[in-house]
Amino acid sequence: MTLTGWITIVGICSLGAMSPGPSLAVVLKHTLSGGRSQGYTAALTHGLGVGLYALISISGLAVIITASETLFTVLQWSGAAYLAWLGIKGLMSRSNPNQNLPEVTTQSAARDGFMIVFLNPKIAVFFIALFSQVVGTETSFAAKLLCATTAMVIDGGWYLLVAWLFSNPRWLKTLQAKAVWLDRIFGVVLVGLAGKLALELA
Question: Please, are residues 32 and 182 in contact by the beta-carbon 8 Å criterion?
Fold first, then answer.
């Protein structure tokens, strides 16, 4: 793989990571609810999920997923259902007089960060389209691993930056004081995204 090809991957993966969507909503939700460590956890597992999808795609296994219309549809509906579930949880948030923050755990942050990627087969399509432009049959395993690692580092790095920015002590306290309403706003966003995906599938 040439340097130009690698730079192409860096540029496109950066744009993809920074595009607003359900992943951003999930990382922000855990950052505002549980603070920097929870946001970092969601960001890191999201990056690992992207890296895994990239490796699967570049290894050719994602072709099997996209070639099976039934499997692809099941994954899409599962993704829509998971987004809806996260959104409904946010909409059902209630004020707690003894605690400003909804209860979150490292385990839930790790789960949500990874599952929001795993249940989105469009990521596989994205990587197939991207890697088909720069990877050929002669591409070595080391080069393929570099491509997958690049995607993982860019994605994880972007969301780590998001978690760091939104957990700044200067204004995190104000945001956390309104955590329940923020949770409900994120719930609306996630349910809306789930609904949009469901309409596209119907």
Answer: yes
